[in-house]
Amino acid sequence: MEAADRVPAAVLVLFVYREGEPYLVFTKKTETVPHHKGQFSFPGGVVETFDGSRVETALREAQEEIGLDPALVDILGLFDDSATRTSGFVITPVVGLCRTAPVFRPDGREIERVVEIPLQRLLDPTCFREELWERDGELHPVVFFTCGDDVVWGATGRILKEFLEAVFGQRSVGRGA
Known about the structure:
177 residues
């Protein structure tokens, strides 16, 4: 699929602090959403024509999905776009830091629950694995972060891996720090 044919989307890679420790925020989608049923993702969604930027999209979607007040978020920057292999999206990750410890309220329609995973756990090589999956006759790496019963994988796992490697160094993810 060509880049021009993909649907633009933005997600919020959100850091929150709980008792002085950094956590990343993920959402678990309901079984009734059109795409990625039951999967873990960053808060976010499709860019609307009224959104002035990818940042606005990510913040608007986070407010709609999990009740996050956009005024509480300091935007740290944008990360490289990531295309999905099967659902036809091109996703812009927007990195943010929540100034206070927010109370999340999943909307119940799109989002079943909010999951906060300690950054330390995501950097632990025992929670990371990569598999090669075949699609259309080609092998593609699929990234998994397993934290208890929760598994972050697919495009979200790939974005997370790329982000952690860029911020914490090439050896940080899946290889031991």
